[in-house]
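Note to self: user wants both folds in one dump. Writing first protein now.
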Amino acid sequence: MAIANITKDIMYEAVSPDDFESMLELDRYGRRSTAFDKIISATHDHFWDPLDKKYIDFDEPWDMETQPLVPDDMIMSLQTDYVSGHLSDPRERTRFINEMTLWQFSSILHGEQGALNLSASLCHVLKDQGAQEYAANQTREEARHVTAFAKYIKARWGRPRPCGQTLQTLLVEIIGAPEVYKKIIGMQMLVEGLAMGAFASFYRNINDPLGKKLMQLVMTDEAFHHKFGKIWADRTVPKLSTEERDMVEDWAAHCFQSLLFNMGSPTQQAAVYRDFGLDPDKVVEGLRALMTDEKRRQRMKSQTNIFRVLIKTLLGAGLITDRTRAFYGTYVDMDELKAEGDRMVGDDIADEGIEYLREINFRGREGAALIAAE
């Protein structure tokens, strides 16, 4: 089991999910790491309740028939002559944009449900009390994300779209994996990293003020979830053997490829195209002609491009070496990425959101201690 979990630091020691007896060991209660204490304490700074209108009001109106939720350039298929020509009527074009946006929001909702279940699963296997408390905290935060995105989708569309098969397969694989490193890399680093990139992109581009506020509130939590994976990487990756490093690096590349395929493949959205009388094969053909390697690299120069964020996450964690550098280099300039430093996209947006929440949560409480996250 040691090689499977690759435990290089005692605070990431794990047991089988059905081994509750290990949680009752007396000596365990006398040990607790302090690595996550600041993240746990900072929870007070960014608390919010999706059911309380003082934080967010899901009754705020939006005319879905005449107002597109996002600009045209956020919908890649609209850049093809085939789709653009087919949707010449402004109202039909708006309806298409909003339905494609529903597909994206539905993927986010399903991803948040996966993050909730994964966080809960960590509570069953991590022996360290500090790590376990952090995982319990994240479970609570992911639960409110599921509530919030479900309420937003209900307010704007009524019902979500099904989860794309590729994303569903990856989520099931990550949540069911017995190896802790697979859970942390797959969810805490890559899926959370993808989320931060997607949320930042929506925050900057979405036309709906309610959607914009939702993205920022969720980002105040996600910025901390990302730190949990970074702490694991800092304490684990430098101590890996060559065999272990290759195993971990290959798993990271596998997750990246799965996410790249899910979020970038138009075949995942075939049902949406058919609803608008579009031939999915022709849409795919148009996108393939449009998305050349050079075009893809140009898009990945954007700081909020979700795959650029994922690659930067892996690079910062030391999970890209000469073995896999060329693979990721297909998509981004690795030297340019490294020169950007450790600051992640969305950190500034999350910081502004935390200040907003502090004003609400500590209003009228003079002298209340505000614990800043580091």
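First done. Writing the second protein, which came from a different request thread.
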Amino acid sequence: MNADISFQDIQRAAERIQAIVRPTPVMTSRSFDAVAGVSAFFKCENFQRGGAFKIRGASNFVYSIPKEQLGRGVVGYSSGNHAQAVAIAAASVGIPATLVMPEDAPKSKLEATRGYGARVITYDRMSGNREAIGRKISEETGATLIPPFDHPWIIAGQGTAALEFLSEVPDLDALVIPIGGGGLISGCAIAAKALRPSIRILGVEPEDGNDTLLSLRAGARTEIPMPQSIADGLRATKPGAITFPIVQKYVEDIILVSDREIRDAMKFLMTRLKIVVEPSGAVTAAALQCHKLPAGLKRVGAILSGGNVDLEFLQTL
């Protein structure tokens, strides 16, 4: 598999997935701008199919599988949003899907994945190895393994979010993007830099999920213990082998936000913009709200990557 991803790959992915992926709105808020001190443009992937951006990469992957292999089905591993996306994409072409998910994944994500027709196998996040479980299922069944971020087809699909974003708001100074394994920021960075070379790419991680920041400082992929952040979709322990070099090339800096800052951003988005954003999706708003961006930025695009959150958690806000 060629690990190089071009802007043309992202354009082709956009054409490939247009029948299943929804164009998501860009929202603004004068009250948020007043607090953040910038003109913020929110790309609302919380309104996407499956409630998150993940359908972009998952559908591009499923639609790229050779026909002779497609009927064997697919298997994936995920904390929730990628699982739902794989289930939706598999159902759209009538193939079986098996998803390996942590036992402590939000109930809404577990139930939704099953609701889309997938078989769900749970594991202990602290002691189990989801990649090994997924590989074993793939070897036993012949199903195609769909990783959550570290694959060219996934990265190209995720990059369509920036392609769409900059077609709506082309004159952004910076793009602020959540980082888990790096699939979203990698694809979006490639697309954004092709469309607007001067744009600045900034990533956001939870404070205890700072594997990408540490890796950039070390100049090599660095593994950390399993994060405990409320941002369950950003609990990667190590950047991807394919995504990390892209991050090194295009990402200017990584911003860290605390769980308290994430909660405050979720509450602001819910009470003032009237939208529900999950913790992993709200990290970008938290970075803006807490004035953690570099000085001099005026027009900032922030991707709200998803909206799948349990009602019980929302009550704690």
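Dump finished. Worth passing along: The first strand starts at residue 26 and ends at 27.
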